[in-house]
Every structure is written in C-alpha cells, then in structure tokens.
Amino acid sequence: MKIKNKILTTFLLVSIIPTLIIIVIGVIKTSAALRTEIVHLSDEFVEKTALQFSAFFEHRLSDIQIYAHSPYVRGMDWATSKDHMESELKRNPGKFEKFILINTDGTYYATNSGNPAKNFLITDNDKDPDAAAKKLSSRTYFKKLITENSSGAVLTDIADPVISMSNAQRQIVISATVKNSERLSGIFAGTITWDQVSGSITKTSEELTKYFGNK
C-alpha cells in the first residue's frame, strides 16, 4: 500500500469514521429521500478527502522531478545546488522540511546540515573534520532508484516514514533519480515531516467539515 493511501486510511479512521457513524444514525431516523441525500454527501466527503491527499503528495512529487531535471541538480555539485535549494525552501515555506542530494555510493548532502571539512557531506559528526560520511544506501528508496535500477531508468518514490539520519525527525522522503547525459548520477529528494502531514490532515478535516456543513 502506498504511503499516501496509508495516511488516508489513518485519516479515515480518526476523522471521518466518527462523522459517518453520526450520518448512519441520521439515515436510520430520516425519510427515504433524505437518506439518499445523506448517503450521497458521505460518498462525496470521502471522495474529496482522497483527492486532496492525492494532490498533497502529487504536487510535491512533481516539484522533486522538476528539481531533479534542473541544471542546479543534474551536475551533482552541491556547491552549485546548495544556495539555490535553500532559496527554494524559503520561497515555499512549509512545503518541504529539507532537500537532499544523494550520490550513487549513498553519501549525501542536505540543506539542514553538512561537514565543512568534507565539502558539506553529512557525516557522523559534522563538527569533526575526520568524521566518516553517513550513507543512505540501506534505505528502501535508494535500493529502488539506484541499487536495483540496473537499466538506469528515470524513477520516483514516495517512501514510508523513516527517522532522519541528520536530525532524528520522523519524515517521509519523496525522491527522483538524477540523470546527466543519460547516466544515472544520483538521487534528489525532499522530506516532509510527520508534523507537516498531521497539519495537512487537520486542515483537510476542517475544510471539508466546513464545506459539508454549508451544503
């Protein structure tokens, strides 16, 4: 099951099911004509919720694909990418928590940290010039996009929640392969924190409750 479907299921259980229980009680107590209208509204409520959650992830995946094909990223040069990616985070506050540029060996850069002595690679201790570089090669999305991608295809992924290696936050990684001159050269990714997802759930619930309350 895709992660957005898992989150939607959680949302249905926590926010929508109680509402539907109230609707069912209403159906039992009302006339046939009104029952039909209530059932129609409940179906519409669930459908609109699914569409909003799909849009939440699809819009972000589209952004990641665009970034992965941009000249700022294709060269896999963090010195070129870093300032632009930080500017993008500021230009779209709350959309992504951070951006990550991952080499084919699993070493990586991120907008929230980096070791100056290692050209800003993420390391075990970014304040120690002798610290070893961390690697993301064990992550499921890395295996899908790099390790198991022998054909070098252009792929994307929306991963299950993981704990960030750089800041220990629970996050969802949205990623896309980076190709340069038809050569698979790495991964570009954006992360969404669990708090951002939770905030979207709350906002969606409030908007839809208000919408259907006015119908």
Summarize this structure briefly.
With 215 residues, the protein is α+β, with helices and mostly antiparallel strands. It has helices spanning 3-29, 32-68, 71-74, 78-91, 140-147, 194-213, and strands at residues 98-102, 108-110, 156-158, 162-163, 170-180, 183-193. The chain contains six helices and six strands, in the order ααααββαββββα.
Description of the structure:
There is one protein chain. The chain has about 220 residues and is of the alpha+beta class. Helix content is about 50%, strand content about 15%. It is built from six helices and six strands, in the order ααααββαββββα. A hairpin with a 6-residue loop joins strand 4 and strand 5. The protein is globular and about 65 Å long.
Features:
215 residues; 6 strands; 6 helices; 6-stranded antiparallel sheet; 51% helix; alpha+beta
Gyration radius from CA atoms, angstroms:
21 Å
Helix content percent band: 40-55%
Which band does the percent of strand residues land in? 15-25%
| CA-CA gap between termini | 33 Å
Look at the helices and sheets and give the structural class: alpha+beta
Rounded mean pLDDT score: 81
Structure annotation, total helices: 6
N-to-C series of helices and strands: HHHHEEHEEEEH
Query: Which spans have pLDDT < 50 for at least 5 consecutive residues?
Result: none
- Which sheet architecture does the biggest sheet show? 6 strands, antiparallel
Compute the number of strand runs. 6
Q: What multimeric state do the chains show? A: single chain
Shape: globular
